[in-house]
Amino acid sequence: MIKKLMTRPISGLQGTLTVPGDKSLSHRGLILGAISQGTTTLHHFLPAADCLSTLTALQQLGVPIMRDGTTVTIIGQGLRGLTQPKQELDMGNAGTATRLLAGLLAGQSFTTTLVGDASLSQRPMERVRQPLQAMGAKLQLTAGHLPMTIVGQILHGGRTEMQIASAQVKSALILAALQADQPSTIIEKLPTRDHTERLLQQFGGQIETAADQRTITVHPKPVLHGQSLTIPGDFSSAAFFITAATIIPNSHIRLVNVGLNPTRTGLLTIVQRMGGQVTVDQQQQAGEPVGTIDVAYAQLQPVRLTAAEIPAVIDELPLVALLAATADGITTISGAAELRVKETDRIATIVTELQKLGVQITAQPDGFTIDGRKSWHQPTMPLASHGDHRIGMMMAIAALRLAAPSELQTAEAVNISYPTFFEDLARLSQEVPA
Ligand SMILES: O=C(O)C1=C[C@@H](OP(=O)(O)O)[C@@H](O)[C@H](O)C1
Ligand SMILES: C=C(OP(=O)(O)O)C(=O)O
User: Which residues are recorded as binding phosphoenolpyruvate (predicted)?
Assistant: First the structure.
């Protein structure tokens, strides 16, 4: 396992890459496969630590699941076929897995306890406990955090108005609503990624989203049917290379089979607005749009982002900060306080790390101000992931622009969402001529 890594400057990125499967869809494919009738096969599954936490938890809930590399076979047990696990379920670092399983387990007929690593144990869980409790669920937390004990109950449908923009909370409510005694209406604060809704329809569930894009109706007690699914490449993983090719001169890359769900691709429009050279060729596919992205180096202009744009770029905001650190002016990002409750306080960790390179970046309670006009310098102390995969990969990309190699500590954090990140980066990297 890599604990620290020397990142070397490169003179450009060239070539074509297929990024690993989508993390959000890998979690959801496992869960919906588990509660369906019959067999589900997931192709291009993401075998990263977070998704393996979901896979193992479902096995402990009595679901036979076999994995051969990136192909996963799930023997569905139906909505009422899960069984009480013999021990607590360890969700590792995975926020998505924890919140989604909280919704699913709230309506089962047994008690489950979820635990997690040090980072996950600091993350807020009231956000799922409160709306699930309003449906009749019984979730016990430890001062708002994990460990979480879920005492399965009969759940009631009805209307829930969400207090935060979170696809994780929405998906927990949808999974609970499937088990309720009457239909449920969930009203989002802002539209967030809609993978659960799309996938549930593919499995035969009845779920509708109104024209306002934020009112969702879930019909309970469906019989879901196992599916054979190919998971698109993860846009959030592609985003590291979109950013790298944009900020490193002499770059031109192609990313193929990337998921292009519009609730995820905010970074594309932001890079284009900043003057980036990104073109997209979208192919039609049932369920989720996929396509090819071409990216070349460009000198960027600053940008202003506010709350309404944040959900579609939430996991790419570390990369927006990095892009802004190369732009010809002052970028402001606001309405992004959710960053404070991710794997790390990402507002704090982004500022700490980019400042090591001399970037003029200031933290705001809900975002950043970044002046990209100052030139960067070699760090005087090692760069670090802080145990946060997205911070580690963002800094590995940033370091490629430096004049000399630099050290990245706790680089193994990439295993959470992108175990082959450094191999893929090496394949596209052109060495600086000696
Ligand atoms: O539903 C999902 O798969 C996710 C939703 C987002 O979290 P929130 O919805 O809580 O913002 C995102 O940050 C996370 O990486 C994955
Ligand atoms: C926030 C993330 O994941 P999770 O909430 O599932 O831990 C992420 O992948 O950036």
Answer: 23, 95, 123, 168, 346, 390
